[in-house]
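Okay, is this right?
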Amino acid sequence: MSGHAGRPRRDWRDVLTDATDLALLGILLTLAAAPVLTAGASVVTASAALHDRLATGGWPPARESLARFGRALLPGLGATLVAAVAVGLLALDLAALAGGRVPGGGPALLVTALIAVAAAGYAGLAVVQVGRGGGRGWRAAARAAAATCRVNPATWAAAAGVVAVAALLAVLVTPVAVPILAGYALAALHAVARRAVLVPAGQP
């Protein structure tokens, strides 16, 4: 039986296949990111693979993904270090505010938490942009993500919401499920991007 536009109608087996694929993607992403310094390369390689799946209906060959991972190691290392420093500083600020060691109390704590979530949303959009470029063009993707946040704040808010919900679930679920959650979170970021107008990489 056919669905709209002549496409076969999807049934529960297709949904189960997609769910399994995303779980496996998350597990592979987590394993590749385990050394920490490879985290950036792992995330964008997974993002590029997911973009191919959404754009073409099929996953890229393993050889292509390995080549993308190798190309992304050096720029990914820089991105990982920047992200680690930013997360560390925000964590210190949140801990200091929560412990009452610096003035500001609840309002300052809330503002800092919102800044952290907003920054995570921006990072999520940048990951999607790099994935759309096949794992290349990190600087252009970062600029495009910043432009998207500026001209389409609803998309920025949606991406931030995805990251916030994923972080909350990561705390609540059993640790063994966290890698699976990573695949679903990445897919949710791509879904947000596909339903919105992103500023193309390279455009100011």
